[in-house]
Amino acid sequence: MLAAPAPAQEPDGYLGEARCATCHGTEQENWAHTVHARVFRSNSRSELAAKGCEACHGPGAKHLEDATDRNAIVAFTRRRGAAVETQSAQCLQCHKGRERLFWQGSVHDTSRLGCSDCHNPMAKLSGSGLLAKSSASETCFTCHQQQRTEFRKRSRMPLLEGKLSCGDCHNPHGSVTRPLLKADHVNQLCTTCHAEKRGPFVWEHAPVRKNCLECHLPHGSSHESLLVVARPFLCQQCHANVSHPANLLTRSNLPRGAVPDERAVNRGCSNCHSQIHGSNHPAGARFQR
Q1: What is the pLDDT of residues 78-112, one digit of tens each?
Q2: What is the 3-state secondary structure (H, E, C) of 63-122?
């Protein structure tokens, strides 16, 4: 009885996509709907992309000889034991530069996070980006559980409604800032949307100029307007050494049914100091106009 002919292969160990599909039929069916499959098959711009499956997983000849050898091919899962650096290096053959310019040394890189921890190139689970979950935010929440909780508080950014995503403020692939912001400073990022708070103002409020996070929480808060502390107590963290603001707090906490100061009702200090982010009025030194 004649032995079956050995599969045709290129000198460098590549077998071709058709040979991979004989064993990995399910994976092939799921992968066929992804952007990678369309690009590799119809618009491959390099010799590597034309390799199909092996463009990412590496030459399959050794894998065919011994499927139990975990080092014979690159598998994008932590269960197979392949180093994160090895997995990510395969992706970075094509996906390098641009928004990944600051990947090396970023908090995700130093935390040994791999591309396949956030992306699933083998199935179309998201509208774009081949993400591991249905959206960028759901993918981020896999690790960032605290932020998931903050977005469920009474005052929050409209992320759960789909009006923005984590990627609108953060670049998960690296940034010049530790929180991976898409700007050099948090104020620069906030005023991208909140342009009316940008200034410059004739009368500037020091904490506003310093950092928006002096008064606001970025994801969600139990207080109105994403405030760190409810008004007027937020203002009195700084303005506590003069009689007027101190009286507001003291009178409203007197025992035996004392009536709270009417100026601290509803919006607190900003009932009068309505332009608290800054004023351009000639008489706006106290942010009242």
Answers
A1: 877 778 888 888 888 888 877 788 888 899 999 98
A2: HHHCCCCCCCCCCCCHHHCCCHHHHHHHHCCCCCCHHHCCCCCCHHHHCCCCHHHHECCC
Q: Which two tokens stand for residue 224?
A: 């109105």
51 and 113 assigned to the same domain: no
For residue 24, what are the domain limits? Answer: 7-61
Q: In the numeric block, which tokens belong to residue 124? A: 């179309």
CA distance 97 to 173: 10
**How far apart are the C-alpha atoms of 157 and 150, rounded to whole Å?**
9
Radius of gyration of the chain (CA): 28
Asked, for residue 17, whether it belongs to a domain, the answer is yes
Residue 214: is it exposed, middle or buried by C-beta count within 10 angstroms (0-12/13-18/19+)?
A: middle
Structurally, the chain folds into a number of domains equal to: 3
Cut 0.85: pTM above it: no
Question: Both 103 and 37 in a single domain?
Answer: no
Do residues 215 and 207 make contact, with C-beta atoms less than 8 angstroms apart? yes
